Amino acid sequence: MKARKLENITGFVSLQGELLPKDETENNYTVSKSNALIEAQYDLTAQEQKLLNSAIAKINPMGEYPDGIPEIRMTGREISQLTGIPQSNVYRFLRSAAERYHSIPIVKTVEVSGTSELKFEVINIAHKSKWDPETGMFSIKFHADIESELINLAQYTKYSLVRLKKLGSKYAIRLYELAQKNLRPNSTAPTDKKYTIDEIRFYLSLDKHLASGKKKNSRYEYVSDLRRRVLDVAIAQINKHTDVYIEYEPYTAPARTKIIGFKFRFRYLTAKQKHTDETADVVKSLTEYYEADKIDFILATYSQMDIISNLDYFKERTAAGFKVKNPAAFVMYLLKFNVAALPETANPFSGLYDRASPEAEFVRLQIMPNWFNIPEETRIEIQKKGLYADSIRRAAAAFKDAYLKTNSIKKHTFSSSAPIGSEQWEREFTQWCSADENMDWADGIFDAE
User: Fold this and answer.
1) d(CA 105, CA 123)
2) Is the distance from CB of 387 to CB of 403 less than 8 angstroms?
3) What is the per-residue pLDDT for 129?
4) In which element (H, E) is residue 432 found?
5) Better pLDDT: 386 or 425
6) Could you give the C-alpha distances from 1 to 66, 74, 143, 146, in angstroms and in order?
7) Which of 81, 326, 379, 400 is the most buried if burial means most Cβ atoms within 10 Å?
8) Are 300 and 272 in contact (CB under 8 A)?
9) Residue 10 and residue 371: Cα distance in Å, rounded?
10) Is 188 helix (H, G, I), strand (E, B) or coil?
11) What value does the mean pLDDT of the chain take?
């Protein structure tokens, strides 16, 4: 199935209609799921979750697949690299996993319109999945039930696949996904969220639910066991091995002593806060470009994952022939906007745009600095249609016209000394959007035709 070309002002070819290509490094694989799927119930082992997420990471979440998502095929060696499962054990595991994806259902909660009630909906994971020992290939064809949770997503959660490799608890993987759903991208500000005990038990498959809503096979029914044997173990793994840090405490009903839920605090950690063995490797990579004081600033400002992914991106682009006069300044620029986390359409340095073109300048000055603050529906449209998205088409065309007339253009971009996501930051951003020199852009980005 070939990609469908979009006839927009950049003339690039999107990845819609085909699986994402294999990247040079595993760090560039990302998992995208609907928020409904993130909070659904499915009782898979840690290894089965890692394998499933590796397959999901091959899918273009903004793609259009008129014939359904194509069958995904991976070798045992590739699976071992992506999941961390030793290659000596991977073949025996794949045989059982291929069978399990047919038998383990996903249970979603669905709000009943006009009420506060929830109903349960059961969907299937795989139409078929198999392990062929002769070819050394695992393949999975996703069931039609689950496709709407993986493509053309309106509300979704995205994270780096490599973050799951060292998580050995199936509960740790689910809690890590829950943290990613609640955290704001590109921000180290903490997020607090309350979950009732019933919600946590459902999410972690401790109470299995049928479509009728009935429970069966409950585990760790005492709160003390739930905390000691599930939450404490899972959170310890997340805090040690990922870019996320989780704290939690119980809460009770007003004037009662019975615990009814837990209040979680999720936050990203900077590399300096993390203090892992991997930090030494990050420092070693940074010494190629910076002195000690600048390295300390970078470690205290950005997460380890962001530093690694942007350094990897820089090396890949330069290896592909992208010329950079000042590598140190360019890497800082990548980190400032977390360019490695941006989709191709929001990245002015991607292969979609000619360098020093009006399209690249428009993306660099307007889309890239504001990407994580643009309304989600607009981001989705830009990812699918590029600069031909209805919501920015006029602004992009006007920018191109001015650029071609003057051969350059000065355009104010938003910046703030306040923490991203703070009330002051939100207030300054709103004021910036309403400034006279930015009205055209604000109209184009926030008010689709």
Assistant:
1) 6
2) no
3) 92
4) helix 423-434
5) 386
6) 10, 18, 19, 21
7) 379
8) yes
9) 19
10) coil
11) 79
The residues, ordered by sequence, that sit 6+ positions from 330 with a Cβ below 8 Å of its Cβ are: 314, 324
The count of other CB atoms within 10 Å of the CB of residue 153 is 21
* Cα atoms in the Cβ-side hemisphere of radius 13 Å centred on 305: 22
Instruction: Tell me: pLDDT of 213 over 60.
Output: no
Q: Which helix (H) or strand (E) is 40 found in, with range?
A: none
Question: What's the confidence (pLDDT) of residue 319?
Answer: 83
Confidence of residue 49 (pLDDT cuts 50, 70, 90): very high
pLDDT of residue 5: 36
Yes or no: say if 187 and 268 are a contact pair by the CB < 8 Å rule: yes
> Domain 16-165, CATH 1.10.10.10 — does that match?
yes
Contact 163, 305 (CB under 8 A): yes
Residue with tokens 């997460």: 303
pLDDT interval class at 446 (50, 70, 90): very low
Q: What is the DSSP string of 218-251?
A: ----SHHHIIIIIIHHHHHHHHHHSSEEEEEEEE
3 state SS of 175? helix
Give the 3-state secondary structure percentages of the chain, helix then strand then coil, rounded to 5. Answer: 45, 15, 35
Spatial contact of 183 and 268, defined as CB atoms under 8 Å apart: yes
CATH hierarchy code of domain 170-268: 1.10.10.10
In this structure, the number of other CB atoms found within 10 A of the CB of residue 26 comes to: 19
Rounded CA separation 272/295 (Å): 10
> Could you tell me if 39 and 181 are in contact, meaning their C-beta atoms sit under 8 angstroms apart?
yes
Helix extents (H) in 33-86: 35-38, 46-56, 76-83
Distance CA 194, CA 203 (A): 13
Give CA–CA dist 19/167, Å, rounded.
26
